[in-house]
């Protein structure tokens, strides 16, 4: 694995100024849901489609910079994390070439780790503010999906993962409150639980249980976002 990340410039016309002088303090990870990286690159750089990201990482580990980090890329859409409602103005978007049906390639994950480490260091972004598209928009997005290895990133200090602790009696209201305290937007349980499990308990399908409760409480306790009164 090369020691230095090589980034290829491939400018997209789809960007604007970050609003109200915002600076990036979030990273949002996506998958492209397209058949090839080439098709994704074409779409992200087409003015017709009005969508972009700051970076695209191919399966082989190639990294393309599409939008400069000081600009507002059009990747997040409607959604929220904590009190941040204009996620595009406050985030850096990273697209991973993946259909959503296949594992993420080793070279791609290696490149993502190097890119994330550089971004977090330069912008002083804490690991708990590296999130998935489905985290900030659980009603309408599912990427990067259950095949994405969040635990691997957490072990490198590039995201966070809850600690396995003793189960708690299921309580839907408390579960939603704890996930809001971590950062998730106000969302019905029917959408919130699958989004949470996609990231933290992939492939687990059952009603809300004590393990979900314990993991959510751990996230809320250790990594509260900017609405700390929600766990009062």
Describe the structure.
With 232 residues, this protein is an alpha/beta fold. The protein has 2 domains: 7-155, Peptidoglycan recognition protein-like (Lysozyme-like); 172-224, no CATH class. It is built from 8 helices and 8 strands; from the N terminus they run βββαβββαβαβααααα. A 6-stranded mixed sheet has the order 1-5-4-7-3-8, with helices on both faces. Strands 2-6 form a two-stranded antiparallel sheet. A hairpin with a 5-residue loop joins strand 4 and strand 5 (63-65). Helix 6 (172-182) runs parallel beside helix 8 (210-222). The chain is globular, with a radius of gyration of 17 Å. 42% of the residues are buried. The model is unreliable at 228-232 (pLDDT under 50).
Entry summary:
The chain is α/β, with parallel strands linked by helices and 232 residues long. It has helices spanning 37-44, 87-90, 106-123, 133-136, 150-155, 172-182, 189-200, 210-222, and strands at residues 7-9, 15-17, 26-31, 55-57, 63-65, 71-73, 91-96, 130-132.
